[in-house]
Amino acid sequence: MSQSSVLPAAGNDAVQPKMPRQIPFIIANEGCERFSFYGMRNILTMFLMTSLLLSIPEELRKGEAKDIFHTFVIGVYFFPLLGGWLADRVFGKYNTILWLSLVYCAGHACLAIFEHNKNGFYTGLFLIALGSGGIKPLVASFIGDQFDQTNRSLAQKVFDGFYWIINFGSFFASLLMPIFLKQFGASVAFGIPGILMFIATFVFWLGRKQYVRVEPVSNDPHAFLVVIRHAILSQGPSGTQSRPGLWLSLIGFILAILGFFFIPQIGIVSAMCSALVLVMGFGGVGAWIQLDRVRGQHPDEAIDGVRNVLRLLVLFALITPFWSLFDQKASTWVLQGEQMTKPEWFQSSMMQALNPLLVMILIPFNNFVLYPLLSRAGIKVTALRRMGAGIAFTGLAWIVVGGLQLAIDGGDPVTIVWQIIPYALMTFGEVLVSATGLEFAYSQAPLSMKGVITSFWYLSVTVGNLWVLLANSSVKGAAVTTYIESLGLSVTAFQMFFFAGFCLFAAFLFAMYARNYRMLDNYRKA
């Protein structure tokens, strides 16, 4: 595969691998971009509740704010599919990141300008979802492109540093933006993240002459989707008409179409995401069944690459419950914090600063203390083991937060300090899942699919937030609400324990599946 800049010389790198000089530009870009994103994201729920949605009856406002927030997050993690495709097939990662970053800046400008205009504000959210989501898989995979087989041993450290800088930006954004929102209003609170996004774009542009750029592959006759399509449509041996994979794919397509009849109950975004999940799920199984039929039509390397990607997507699917719990810290947990006792100056959304602060502590602690101790104890800390444990810790965090909700519902005054416990548990789970998953997704992706497979990793976040929207829709009916009340629980507490069980069950399935997963090494050669 051609490169548009000179690769690092091998020479002594095999003995003492060297860090690529261009990495600081990407890391600095990410720190500023994450400040901009989390700066607006972490005040979004409170802004909706206290300003933009005031025309909605108070008893409905909380549910509407949660729906808007998670719809926005769904968009952020859906558009990586578009960004990954554009980068891998048309423009390349560098150009796609640069141009979508400018769209991102325009979105921030809309939020600052249209703080009292719903249409203008929602346009800003859409542009941020498009820009942020479009570049999200590319920055991580662009980092991977800067490494080869001679220095890949440094890649995991850089991915950990990458995740550390994400949380460095998130920490200050989470701490400061609620204060700016309260003291100076929405224009300033949403405008500052916009300035940081412009700085992020400028810093990324400064490194343009030093980056390794992997050329996009256009019109690849053996691309992932081409092989999938041919496998689903292929006939049986000797031209027989047996096509179980095609029938499964058609069933998924029909179910996806039928799902749109439930739009009044679940909303258009939930219906569209559900349709995507059904088509991908049934189509993936259908292609798997018939994949060997297209050997000869496509090279073995392409067939095996598709099969490896499909195996990987099963792991990604099992991670979606983690994301459904994790992203609710900016909605459900913030709203719970509003019911807890706290100093007058303190806002519940400021508790989110605890998450990135703990991440910055836990990443070096895990790498320099925990993992070496476990290794000396004879416990091999693989990527999959870390991710499975992280899903389980997140489930435990929600058992704790559910217990706090029971105390609140019982009329007991509960200080917001108690939220430190679930934040610590979930942040530990996040480090094990998300920081590990960035490098894992890159290493497992075929060389021609780095952007797209990282997009699938982020798509798991979209599906996780889809579970939240579906769960919120399911408890709006009178029959379900009556049943929950008969259990002696509030709807909020019931959902917390439901999500905890959902996550723990997913952790068990993840551990079972991961036992037989075959690890790959798909870094480019020097």
How helix-rich are the residues, as a percent range? over 70%
**Looking at the chains present, what oligomeric state does this protein adopt?**
single chain
Q: Distance N terminus to C terminus? A: 11 Å
Q: Per the principal axes of the C-alpha atoms, what is the gross shape?
A: globular
**Order of helical and strand elements:** HHHHHHHHHHHHHHHHHHH
User: Unreliable segments (pLDDT under 50, ≥5 consecutive)?
Assistant: 1-14
Q: Compute the number of helices.
A: 19
**Largest sheet geometry:** none
Number of strands: 0
Q: What is the averaged pLDDT score?
A: 86
How much strand?
A: under 5%
- Rg is 23 Å
Q: Based on helices, strands and strand pairing, what is the structural class?
A: mainly alpha
Write structural notes for this entry:
It is a multi-pass membrane protein. Its main location: membrane. It is found in: Membrane. The longest helix has 30 residues, at about 25-50. Residues about 1-15 have low confidence and may be disordered. The protein has helices spanning about 25-50, 60-80, 80-90, 95-115, 120-145, 155-185, 185-205, 225-235, 245-260, 265, 270-290, 300-325, 330-335, 355-375, 385-410, 420-445, 450-475, 480-485, 490-515. α4 (about 95-115) packs antiparallel against α5. By secondary structure, it is an all-alpha fold.
Question: What are the key terms here?
Answer:
MFS transporter, mainly alpha, POT_fam, transport, about 525 residues, MFS_trans_sf, transmembrane helix
Topology:
Blueprint: H1 23-52, H2 58-78, H3 80-91, H4 93-113, H5 118-145, H6 155-184, H7 186-206, H8 224-233, H9 244-259, H10 263-266, H11 268-290, H12 300-326, H13 332-337, H14 354-376, H15 383-409, H16 420-444, H17 450-474, H18 478-486, H19 491-514
Helix pairs in contact: 1-2, 1-5, 1-6, 1-7, 2-5, 2-17, 3-4, 3-5, 3-17, 4-5, 4-7, 5-17, 6-7, 6-14, 6-16, 8-11, 9-11, 11-17, 12-15, 12-16, 12-17, 12-19, 14-16, 15-16, 15-19, 16-17
